[in-house]
């Protein structure tokens, strides 16, 4: 059994390495082509357009590398640096309207305390909100509450939803879905993976289910902070 587990882990690691290399090579290849074209035909190069395009590619590379580093570090840092933090306050501070956003409706209860590294909790909230923003048609609903002995954050969008058979695969690194909810709308392909890894690092869970009326409902739960 242990041998099978080691083989599976090695296969996953190799697959992830190959996927990461592909994701990093795509913007690098585009940047290289544009720079080589500019060198060959400087008189035909629109410098401002070239710089804007290069900055977009560099920003995407930076975002992917930042997310990969966070995935590598989150488990090791969790136990050492966590402290009591209010999940409701964290969510409120991250629900900031942006131009072109769908309608975002927030409901919270006070003092939903959990133990976490503030930066990690904020990153998980950002990942879930960004995912909902990308896929919502008109509305995102965000709610913080207590559920038994856990703190619960739900983020619901009115987008196309996620088929049952894909609801675990969307949490894989660089997962691509053959559905309307694909990665052509932006993101690094690591956001949901990061959010789930953060939940697991603090003995929590993250899953997705169908929202009432369609769309997707992401449910993020962490144990409530216990006062000694």
TrEMBL record:
Q: Its catalytic activity? A: ATP + protein L-histidine = ADP + protein N-phospho-L-histidine
Q: GO terms for CC?
A: plasma membrane
Q: What is its main location?
A: membrane
UniProt domain Histidine kinase: residue ranges? 19-226
Q: What is its EC number?
A: 2.7.13.3
List the GO molecular function terms. phosphorelay sensor kinase activity
Keyword Phosphoprotein attached: yes
- InterPro entries (UniProt xref): HATPase_C_sf, HATPase_dom, His_kinase_dom, HisK_dim/P_dom, HisK_dim/P_sf, Sig_transdc_His_kin-like_C, TCS_sensor_his_kinase
Keyword Transport included in the entry's annotation: no
Name of the protein in question:
histidine kinase
